[in-house]
């Protein structure tokens, strides 16, 4: 359940650096899988948009 006061990049950073269970609860994947998905997306040419990082984009998709 989303209880953070942070939004956007700050929220994603909190998920990645916080308790391992939080990223699972919020996004349904563990940190290792999330990082691997980012790597796969970047390998296939995906990049940050003007205002939204690739990490945020993936988080929005998974949420």
Automatic annotation (TrEMBL):
Pfam family name, one: DUF8040
Domain of life the protein comes from: Eukaryota
InterPro entries: DUF8040
Domain called DUF8040: residue spans: 3-63
Entry protein name: DUF8040 domain-containing protein
The species this protein was found in: Serpula lacrymans var. lacrymans (strain S7.3)
């Amino acid at each position: 359940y989303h209880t953070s006061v942070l939004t956007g990049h700050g929220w994603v950073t909190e998920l990645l650096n916080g308790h391992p269970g939080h990223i699972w609860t919020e996004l349904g994947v563990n940190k290792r899988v999330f990082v691997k998905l980012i790597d796969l997306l970047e390998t296939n040419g995906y990049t940050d948009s003007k205002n939204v990082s690739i990490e945020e984009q993936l988080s929005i998709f998974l949420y």
